[in-house]
Write a structure and sequence with these properties.
This protein is α/β, with parallel strands linked by helices and about 90 residues long. About 30% of the residues lie in helices and about 25% in strands. Strands 1-3-2-4-5 form a 5-stranded mixed beta sheet, covered by helices on one side.
């Protein structure tokens, strides 16, 4: 299992995409349907229509790793994923 997975949503290079950190209890990677759901939710709630870089994985459940990413990426979004919902 990878500690951190990065899944781009378009052709924009990952470094230039908007980072979205998805935290799940078990650190699971999102499938294409889940990524599409997050992409559509960000568009609906925040008007974001740019390419995203979706970060998932058990490594993000480590607070020091997550805080380091967030400090270095001030334009990032944090998504908490539960069994039935997501919270921004």
């Amino acid at each position: 299992m990878d500690l951190i997975n990065i899944q781009p949503t378009g052709k924009t290079p990952i470094k230039e995409s908007i980072p979205v950190f998805v935290i799940t209890r078990e650190g699971k990677k999102y499938n294409s349907d889940g990524i599409e759901f997050i992409k559509n939710s960000l568009k609906q709630h925040f008007g974001i229509d740019e390419d995203l870089a979706i970060f998932t994985g058990i490594g993000l459940n480590n607070a020091s790793v997550l805080s380091s990413f967030l400090r270095n990426k001030p334009n990032a979004y944090l998504v908490l994923s539960t069994k039935d919902n997501i919270v921004f």
